[in-house]
Amino acid sequence: MRSVIFICIGTVLPACNNNPAPDFEKEKKAILLPEVRRRDYHFIKNARALVKMFSNDFLSVNEGLIEKHLGGKILEKLTVYFKGVEFVKWAYNEERIVRFSDDGSTAYVAVDKMVIVKLPGKIGGTTLDNTKFAWLTVYKKKNANGRWTVSLLPISKKK
């Protein structure tokens, strides 16, 4: 009798799983939309909208530094950055690579892009700066609203 109970429990419990398998094609589209928005926010210099995309535990890895961005520090840093730069071009050199964790709660987007910006010149005027980026954005899905937030942003660049 015990073996019959275990067999019944073993077949019934998996059917009680309320978490259906993620629709990865749908999630891929949902992930690529914030990627486009991030680009747009750079061009229109909207630091506030950009920061709203970050998770509460957002980390960046850039130029040999790991930074925890807490409170308004990231907003202040981006606002200062946007005041001194004008984006000219942001082009993807290859198709973006999107991968998901098995449960669909985490994703990453690998990007190979070229960015050209205008910077203030040393004696006035402006100079163009061309930078090739290898960029990896790690996203976490917020269960409460299904929205993806940026949790980790490691950046590698080559002038």
Q: What's the short version?
A:
The chain has 159 residues and is an alpha+beta fold. The chain is built from four helices and seven strands; from the N terminus they run αααββαβββββ. Strands 1, 2, 3, 4, 5, 6 and 7 form a seven-stranded mixed beta sheet that branches.
What does this structure look like?
With 159 residues, the protein is of the alpha+beta class. It has helices spanning 2-12, 24-43, 47-52, 73-83; strands spanning 54-62, 65-68, 86-92, 97-100, 106-120, 126-141, 148-158. Strands 1, 2, 3, 4, 5, 6 and 7 form a 7-stranded mixed beta sheet that branches. A hairpin with a 5-residue loop joins β4 and β5. The chain is globular and about 65 Å long.
Strand-and-helix sequence, N→C? HHHEEHEEEEE
Oligomer: single chain
* Poorly predicted regions: 4-15
Based on CA atoms alone, the radius of gyration comes out at 21 Å
- Class from helix and strand fractions: alpha+beta
The dominant shape is globular
> In percent, how helical is the residue content?
25-40%
Average pLDDT for all residues: 86
Range of strand content: 35-45%
How is the topology of this model organized?
Layout: H1 2-12, H2 24-43, H3 47-52, E1 54-62, E2 65-68, H4 73-83, E3 86-92, E4 97-100, E5 106-120, E6 126-141, E7 148-158
Parallel strand pairs: 1-7
Antiparallel strand pairs: 1-2, 3-5, 4-5, 5-6, 6-7
